[in-house]
Design brief:
Elements lengths: L1 H7 L2 H20 L7 H16 L4 H24 L5 H19 L10 E3 L5 H9 L4 H26 L3 H11 L1 H6 L4 H27 L1 E3 L6 H16 L4 H25 L10 H31 L1
Antiparallel strand pairs: 1-2
């Protein structure tokens, strides 16, 4: 019972980081762009959310994080399309610049220069508890799960509906064949900018919601988010395969849940002994490497079966 409760307590983070996985799926799979803005937009969304929430507007803070992430995506898209900067370099430039901006944002409070901020219970989860009249730690965990699930489902539906609109279809076509889209008199640069803005908006929203779940935000909270999102997307594809946009978006969210539960299992079972906590990034890299190897292993098995069948 205690173990089940432990894994259930990780569900809110699984769902929240599902938004991060959605953003990475859009840039990596739909747009076919290796966008490295992730850690910058996640952190920018987080600190922006903190600053707005501390004014007493936790719900508005989520939108602030979303728009902060979208702004980061716009910068990366502008560098790629208008200044012809390589997609990888454009993401690195934006991420590096946002690190300094985030550091400055942390000083926009009465505390002065700092690298971490506390929400003082001004979060959407606490607001939900007040509306429902709930008290206690168990209720907090339950409310976090329900609220996170509701937000993720809403975002998933809205994103899915968007990709069925004319602009959404143009963005999908841009990722598949930009030359054909350009020949159809569609502005490819605009589609890339909008797509990157949308992807990073979801990442910024994930950062905003994550900090509200934790109750605090710090400058280095975004470290490792890129590898997390990539792992979630890859694991989701390993389970569901590479299919349409609907299954792809859903697989990214489910991949996030699976990945987070695997990490929780490593920590819970202390697989690396006293070094389990310190080897978290190693664990992440190992999971990604193993997941990436699955398609190759499957291919080898199929080829061996064919050879045996021909014999």
């Amino acid at each position: 019972m205690i173990e089940l409760q432990y894994y259930l307590s990780n569900l809110p983070d699984c769902l929240i980081y599902g938004l991060l996985a959605l953003g990475i799926y859009i840039s990596l799979r739909i747009l076919d762009i290796p966008d490295l803005t992730t850690e910058g937009s996640f952190g920018f969304g987080a600190v922006t959310s903190v600053l707005v929430a501390l004014k007493g507007y936790p719900v508005l803070a989520l939108f602030a994080g979303l728009f902060a992430g979208a702004f980061a995506g716009l910068i990366t898209g502008f560098l790629q399309t208008k200044l012809s900067v390589h997609p990888v370099l454009a993401g690195i430039i934006t991420m590096s610049g946002l690190y300094s901006i985030n550091l400055i944002c942390y000083s926009f409070t009465d505390k002065g220069a700092t690298t971490n901020l506390s929400y003082n219970k001004i979060t959407v989860f606490e607001k939900a508890k007040q509306w429902l009249g709930l008290r206690g730690q168990l209720e907090t965990s339950t409310v976090k799960t329900v609220v996170s699930l509701g937000i993720v489902l809403l975002v998933f539906i809205l994103v899915l509906m968007f990709f069925k609109t004319h602009m959404g279809l143009c963005i999908r076509a841009t990722g598949d064949n930009p030359d054909m889209v350009r020949a159809s008199s569609i502005n490819v640069d605009r589609m890339k900018i909008v797509g990157l803005a949308l992807a990073n908006a979801l990442i910024g929203l994930s950062g905003a919601l994550s900090t509200q779940s934790l109750g605090y935000s710090e400058l280095n909270s975004a470290n490792g988010t890129l590898i997390y999102g990539l792992a979630a997307v890859i694991i989701g594809e390993a389970v569901f395969g590479k299919r349409g946009v609907t299954i792809g978006l859903l697989s990214a969210i489910i991949g996030s849940v699976i990945y987070k539960l695997i990490v929780a299992f490593v920590i819970r079972e202390n697989l690396f002994g006293d070094l389990s906590t310190n080897l978290m990034k190693f664990t992440c890299a190992l999971i990604v490497a193993v997941t990436l190897a699955i398609p190759a292993i499957k291919k080898m098995i199929r080829e061996r079966k064919k050879v045996r069948g021909s014999c």
